[in-house]
Amino acid sequence: MVWIFEGLMFLSVAGLLAAFHSDLAAGTILLKTLASLFFVLTGVYGYKRDQDGERRRLFSKPVLIALLCSMAGDVLLALDKSQGIFFVLGVAGFAGAHVMFSLAFCRVCAVRKTELLWTFVIFAQLVLLLALGDFDFQGLLPVLIGYAAVISFMTVKALSFWKCRQGQKKMAALIMCGGVLFLFSDIVLLFWLFGIGMPKWVQSVNWILYYVAQGCLAASLSARAARLGAN
Questions:
Q1: Angle, helix 169-194 to helix 200-230, in steps of 10 degrees
Q2: Of 25, 52, 22, nearest to 227 (Cα)?
């Protein structure tokens, strides 16, 4: 089922790219929603497979909530036309998703002091990019700085699975890949939304990175459930 849902997600992404480059606004919104629905369904399937009640509550549930928040953010950003209230709510949805991802990751891999240092390093680089880049933030710079702090910590926590991957290497690899690709997709999205004179292929790269990231994070639930079922 994971392969089916993720296959349908990538078919939807292919349709999304075609609709976007053909300037089909309604088709773009519909296919973006469908693509997001399929990574949520991947997460739901993995959540239901996890039969360990305590671990399900500590890890699978917050990841599933994060996927739902991400889908809400996707829909809201798709509906946004002028960086208005839909944009702010969409960013809030993604920030909530990163908080829930981080919560789940912290419950598996305890926070270390070095991770806080690396979070600051990544955050400082993102703030430097915001300060030096050729962007028109339309008054939303404080929102983006707050978001940068959240995504920085989530990325570092995803990478922390390298140190606690024993017995769950597939799950750890999916989470690490998902966290890094999510960060890259957000950087590309920054250029698309606020950069001046960006070509359409920038948005396409953002979507490809983003949906691969979400596919990895959603599939990590099934990888975890499969590992638990094998024990």
A1: 160
A2: 52
